[in-house]
Amino acid sequence: MSSHPSAYESWTREALITRLSQLESHRKPTAEPLCKRKVFDFSAHPRRKIALKFTYNGADYSGLEFQKTPTTLPTVEAVLFDALVHTRLIDPATGFEGCGWEKCGRTDRGVSAAGQVISLWVRSALGQARVRTSLEDANVMDVHPTGLEGDLALMGEWDETPTNAARPATPQATNELRYITLLNNVLPPTIRVIAWSPVGPDFSARFSCRYRHYKYFFSPEGLDLAAMQDAADRLVGEHDFRNLCKLDPSKQLTTFARKILSARLNPAQADGASTLYVLDLIGTAFLYNQVRHIMAVLFLVGTKLEHPSVIDALLNVDAAQPRAPSRPGEPFPQVIPSKPEYQMADPLPLMLWECAYDKDTVSWRTGDGPLPTEGAALSHRDLSNNLYHSVHALHQRSVVQTAMDAHFLRAVAAYHAPPPQYFPIDAPGVQPVPSGSVLSIPLGAGTVRRGARYVPLVERPRGDLVEAVNERWRTGKGARQMERKALAAQASGRS
């Protein structure tokens, strides 16, 4: 680099301003004013109903569901909706209702999904003569590495309908839009669309689902896995789960019966190489925060603070129809008609793994043409649009970070001794809990609840009955909401 001062360094402030003004006057506009751009006519294009399967890392979002009020982090639905709008697959003017948007399962802030599904009506290219655009081949990493963040960098290029007419027809993608590539090119890397399927007009991502499979990852350190599995086995079947969920009076639920098909504790990796375990919980449907409540109780059982039969008591809500013991020789469980006070498990390790449908209702496909043959050279475009490659790269970063965290722990352990291990209580090799000790009860993902005195669940204070909670909402917040809606409808009618 030259050490000589540039010509502008000797200019006065006024001269610099004059020069900048001259340059601005000669600068060509980079984009046509929005008011002069041609309006995209959605009515001129056919639509079809599809299902989209996608993944997301919940740590970066304020839950799945779109919120009308501002949130500290974006919601997954809001980001995905924006991507569908900017790729001109749905009409923003009609909103979620206009495209028939339905989701399979709601996940809260911090909760992730590997197989979430939505169904909706989108623009289709079938039956149209189309011209391929360069944007369809664009690599989002070459343009803007974080997709929808910033000013949605790719969107200024959407002047023509993106198509794939030049691509040879394949069994998976016959002259249809490349939905997966189009969306992933503008979505942030924390959300990935992995498959799509044509579906019938009556298909519902929510009501057509046969079962949902959730996974909750946890460390088995200090836990009695056999006792936890005993407790999990008692969940299987159709039961009233009002004491194992969070009540949402705005929904005015009066029945809390849900059917659990399977509840198993398994090594997180089939080859046994992982030090983590996972609760695989499969059910036809789930209540609000049901999995996190179940996992919180399983942690209490695993530490031996609770007996597995506590599950029987929490499911025993009706004195008129008492629940029998699950195991021979156990006493009849106590009737608990309303939920005891306890903290649910951390959301970070929870993942919606699969939403299952009948094979005759969905046919998952990638729609991006055939995969390269084994041993074939991969082009820059192949790697840019290869989902496995991009997600594998994220996994490798996580593996490296985990190894680094383990070394940080080793460095600390050289100077600081680990705290005494009290869990599982009274287990061989575990020291007894001395009087006055503060217990760190696990809640998942390294979080704990500390307390010097443990109160069994059946002895804790309980919340109000469901009927009372619903009535209080109806006469309070619910009544005010209805009043505001009525006033808004009247104002709309006058206008």
Automatic annotation (TrEMBL):
E.C. numbers: 5.4.99.12
A GO MF label: RNA binding
Pfam families on file: PseudoU_synth_1
The yes or no answer to whether the keyword Isomerase is present is yes
Q: Is Protein biosynthesis given among the entry's keywords? A: no
Q: Which GO terms describe its biological process?
A: mRNA pseudouridine synthesis; tRNA pseudouridine synthesis
Give residue ranges for domain Pseudouridine synthase I TruA alpha/beta: 231-358
Instruction: Report the catalytic activity.
Output: uridine(38/39/40) in tRNA = pseudouridine(38/39/40) in tRNA
Choose one Gene Ontology CC annotation of this protein and give it: nucleus
Sorted UniProt keywords: Isomerase, tRNA processing
- Sorted alphabetically, which PANTHER family does this protein's record hold? PSEUDOURIDYLATE SYNTHASE, TRNA PSEUDOURIDINE(38_39) SYNTHASE
Q: What is stated as this protein's family in its record?
A: Belongs to the tRNA pseudouridine synthase TruA family.
Full protein name: tRNA pseudouridine synthase
